[in-house]
């Protein structure tokens, strides 16, 4: 354990490998029954076609492919049966010709010329056919020129024999050179693993090539088989979904010289977006892996398949390294090909992790608070407008223009907004903005000017005598007579 920690790091605490790697996989909480697979581990599809009816005649229309797809025992049986029947049939034809011509009774007469020399029974006719078909030519039995029907039968025998040989021998050759046998030397890991890689939750499995010959243009694809129900109520028992293993980046194109780890990043576009360690105990799915490539030696396309059920996906595991550098070459240790070990992995799904990240982040950004302050200042302006409309008309005339309070408050609100924004500026810019003679002093002079304008307008509205008494700029009440002063006070109250 200590040596393993020194090699891989202290963060990997518990080590657990699969059966082929020298350890046991982590036990499941509740054992399940035997899982019905769509694709076996060896790549065979568990699908049987039934109730074909009249469609079964389509197999006879493509008899050659049907013969190639049969099992070896049926191929050998058909091979032997076809040659046996053909030989017996042609030997019978030669015996019938000899029988009809009377050659069987005159076989030992030296003065008689038969159709086939030295054919006097069925075994001798069968031997003549085999010698002719196999081009052995012992020279003891031969066709004479006194038998034209024998010459015609000989030509028919040669054509029929060539057709049978081409059909059966070609079928056996193709079946022996099928690329399915090349797939036997392509390996897949027994388990798939889910752990963190590059900061993202990733589904991983391993592929390898046992031969030194390469797989040209090797490409890998993954299908997720899972039952689901559509919003319309339709039930799909084996719905096929594509798992992205690097289509956009070209990672699905493999250079399969050494074992490779195939990765599927679980994100919002992945079918495993809601998958967590807890939900794996209730989910039922199957991951079908398809590896295709061209065999370098024969140029034929080869396809290898395997599958992983939910029980064969290990959460929080990673594969052991199998490549080591030796003296002048890289060595692959296939004894650790299926081995995995545990690594720290969050038990939550990607969706749950994103939701927790959003809950931990602040909900109200600064821009929202600024908008709220602006809205409150506008509400204050509206309230002041309502108060201004409730004043007496005389006081409204004294104040001058009706939109004076609103403009003043708007100017003050813009000043406060500027002050708020000034707090977000750097210190140098704040010092520059605080220099005397800037916008704040201009704003103060503008407001005092606006305050003095209504007073000047109110004095201009007085009679000429009262304007003279006011002295142009002093206090008006101090120069009025007592009667006018009283009248003025009663007027304003």
From TrEMBL:
Query: Mind listing the UniProt keywords for this protein, alphabetically?
Result: Ion channel, Ion transport, Membrane, Potassium, Potassium transport, Transmembrane, Transmembrane helix, Transport, Voltage-gated channel
Keyword NAD appears in the UniProt entry: no
Topology of the protein relative to the lipid bilayer: Multi-pass membrane protein
Q: Which Gene Ontology molecular-function terms are recorded?
A: G-protein activated inward rectifier potassium channel activity
User: Any idea where this protein resides?
Assistant: Membrane
Show where the Inward rectifier potassium channel C-terminal domain sits.
Answer: 186-356
The name of this protein is G protein-activated inward rectifier potassium channel 1
UniProt domain Potassium channel inwardly rectifying transmembrane: residue ranges: 39-179
Tell me the protein family, please.
Answer: Belongs to the inward rectifier-type potassium channel (TC 1.A.2.1) family. KCNJ3 subfamily.
Cite a single Pfam family from the UniProt record.
IRK
Task: Give the signal sequence positions.
Answer: none
Q: Where is the composition biased (Polar residues)?
A: 445-459
What residue ranges are annotated as transmembrane?
76-97, 151-174
Q: Which GO terms describe its cellular component?
A: monoatomic ion channel complex; plasma membrane
Q: Which InterPro entries match?
A: Ig_E-set, IRK_C, K_chnl_inward-rec_Kir, K_chnl_inward-rec_Kir3.1, K_chnl_inward-rec_Kir_cyto, Kir_TM
Key word Transport present: yes
Chain intervals for the UniProt region annotation (Disordered): 15-35, 434-493
Q: Which reaction does it catalyse?
A: K(+)(in) = K(+)(out)
Q: Which species expresses this protein natively?
A: Nicator chloris
